[in-house]
Amino acid sequence: MSHGLCIQDVMNVAKSINKKVTKSQAKSILKEYPLAQLSDPSGSWNLVIEDLIYNVLSKDEGNKTYARKCSITGKGMNEGWIVEDHDMYFSKQKDAKAYVKSCGYKSLKKAFKDDFIYWTEWYQDEPQYVENNGVLFDL
Fold first, then answer.
1. For range 1-15, the mean pLDDT
2. Phi-psi group of 74: left, alpha or beta (phi > 0 → left; psi -120 to 50 → alpha; rest → beta)
3. pLDDT digits 0-9 by tens, 89-119
4. 130 domain residue, yes or no
5. N- to C-terminal Cα distance for the chain?
6. Any residues with CB less than 8 A from the CB of 28 and at least 6 apart, and which?
7. Do 75 and 105 lie in a common domain?
8. Structural domain boundaries, residue 103
9. Which residues of 28-61 are buried (b: 16+ CB within 10 A; e: fewer)?
10. What is the per-residue pLDDT across 30-58, written as a single tens digit (0 to 9) for each?
11. Which residue, 22, 44, 63, sits at the end of a domain?
């Protein structure tokens, strides 16, 4: 591989986070690594591999991964409204509107123009939560 990583590197990272991956899963991770590294150029190789391990394991288990958790519903989300200064996330626009009004804004549009809140999509390769049987867990 041109990136210099091998199956044993993936196995070692998996072991360091108390996970087990098969050789087939490790090969899949190594195939995904170059693109994942480009998506997160500041991430060290082992952290990028760790994220890929979680992604592969959750896909193989039939679990869904999410980048954030809605502050209102408690459900996972990969896109939505964010108020960074308050560490608040909203999957529904109506909840974002209600929140900015409770903070003194007359509208979501005004809060957006003031850079108080914004809408975004998070990369699928940076999950922080996994849903298993309808229950959301931190990764």
1. 85
2. left
3. 999 999 999 999 999 999 999 999 999 999 9
4. no
5. 28
6. 56
7. yes
8. 68-121
9. bbbebbeebbeeeeebeeeebbbbbbbbbbbeee
10. 998 888 888 777 778 888 898 888 888 77
11. 63
* Judgement on whether residues 41 and 80 belong to the same structural domain of the protein: no
Measured in residues, the chain has a length of 139
Confidence bin at 1 (pLDDT 50/70/90)? very low
Percent of the chain with pLDDT over 70: 91
Map the chain to HEC letters. Answer: CCCCCCHHHHHHHHHHCCCCCCHHHHHHHHHHHHHHHHHCCCCCHHHHHHHHHHHHHHHHCCCEEECEECCCCCCEECEEEEEHHHCEEECCHHHHHHHHHHCCCCCHHHHHHCCCCEEEECCCCCCCEEEECCEEEEC
Q: Determine, yes or no, domain membership for 136.
A: no
The token duo for 81 is: 């409204």
Smallest CA-to-CA distance from 105 within 94, 93, 117, 88 is with 117
